Amino acid sequence: MGMLDGKVAIVTGAGRGIGREEALVLASQGAKVIVNDVGASLQGEGGDKHPAEEVVELIRAGGSDGAVNASDVSSWDGAKALVDQAIDTFGQLDILVNNAGILRDKMCFNMEESDWDDVIRVHLKGHFAPSHHAAVYWRGRAKAGEEVTGRIINTSSEAGLFGNAGQANYSSAKAGIASLTWVLARELGRYGITVNSISPRARTRMTENLFGEMAKADAGFDKFDPRNVAQLVTFLATDEAADISGQNFIVYGGDIWATGGFHPVGELHRDSMWTPEELAAAKGELFKNASSQVPPFSLS
Ligand SMILES: NC(=O)c1ccc[n+]([C@@H]2O[C@H](COP(=O)([O-])OP(=O)(O)OC[C@H]3O[C@@H](n4cnc5c(N)ncnc54)[C@H](O)[C@@H]3O)[C@@H](O)[C@H]2O)c1
């Protein structure tokens, strides 16, 4: 008995990296999986179906079922075709893991318009478009009186939560995805749908230069194996996670932080208007328990 027997999942960008492991672990718990991937380069160029086909073969070899989908998730029609394929092929959709992404890292003064537009489009619209079409489907089922246990698991990043130099486009998209997660969780909870996001760390082509030797140093437990991340995502997809929504999780190795949302770090209150001079005098009070400088990039 798997925790996801009888469920149907979509994982976007599942031909490689974290998405690949998510598709395999979801399938190992009994889910049938639509393995979406355009097979793009890290920068979002080109297309190759082979990685996604290989993942489907592995899913079938493991005893579950799957199908390839090569839609660009940032295309409105492509995202609809993706959701439709799950319903047409396996009769339903229960789980949507939005994971596909690209990188075009540059400092803000070197960034080209296309670097900004493409990264925001693939990540942010590439999360919203499949979520929209899945929400239309689930809301329709709920309104028809069916019981819905929809799951959306988004992929944010610590770059979005803390802001990473060199990633204005990517960090903005990932912060948008964190915020989108809260909005979707608020809008869709009444239909039986939970919406959460993860901010993972894992060794993939996206991070092999960043983590480099650090990721290879530990000969024991492989903390940077993307399969670690896939376990949390799979749990969030189960019925046991029905009471978790609107949350973000930093996750890597055996470490998981539930980060909640933005929190106040200081406050000022009075029943009259502040002047800039008065605020200059009061800033010490506002930041008495926290630094007024940009916070550190990550938790550890
Ligand atoms: N690896 C990390 O440590 C890390 C950290 C934070 C966030 N993330 C996020 O995790 C997700 C997966 O990243 P990864 O490290 O596995 O990268 P990856 O490059 O190995 O995999 C991304 C996959 O997305 C696919 N893809 C790209 N554009 C697409 C599109 N328009 N439609 C469909 N598929 C598309 C690519 O072909 C690729 O297979 C991304 O959203 C990334 O931003 C990763």
Residue share in β-strands: 5-15%
Bound ions, cofactors and other small molecules, one mention each: nicotinamide-adenine-dinucleotide
Spatial order of the strands forming the largest sheet: 3-2-1-4-5-6-7-8
Stretches where pLDDT is under 50 for at least 5 consecutive residues are: none
Whole-Å distance between the termini? 37 Å
Counting structural domains, the number is 1
Q: Report helical residue fraction.
A: 40-55%
Per CATH, the class reads Alpha Beta
Order of helices and strands: EHEHEHEHEHHEHHEEH
Backbone shape? globular
Description:
This protein has 300 residues and is α/β, with parallel strands linked by helices. The chain has a single domain (8-258), classed as NAD(P)-binding Rossmann-like Domain (Rossmann fold, 3-Layer(aba) Sandwich), CATH 3.40.50. Helices cover 43% and strands 13% of the residues. It has helices at residues 17-28, 50-61, 76-90, 113-143, 158-163, 168-188, 208-217, 226-236, 276-286, and strands at 8-11, 32-36, 66-69, 95-97, 150-155, 193-200, 248-252, 255-258. The chain has an eight-stranded mixed β-sheet with strand order 3-2-1-4-5-6-7-8, sandwiched between helices. Helix 1 runs parallel beside helix 2 and helix 3 runs parallel beside helix 4. The longest helix has 31 residues, at 113-143. It starts with 7 loop residues before the first strand and ends in a 14-residue tail after the last helix. 42% of the residues are buried. Residues 12-13, 15-19, 36-40, 42, 44, 72-74, 99-102, 122, 126, 155, 157, 200-202, 204-207 line the site of nicotinamide-adenine-dinucleotide (NAD).
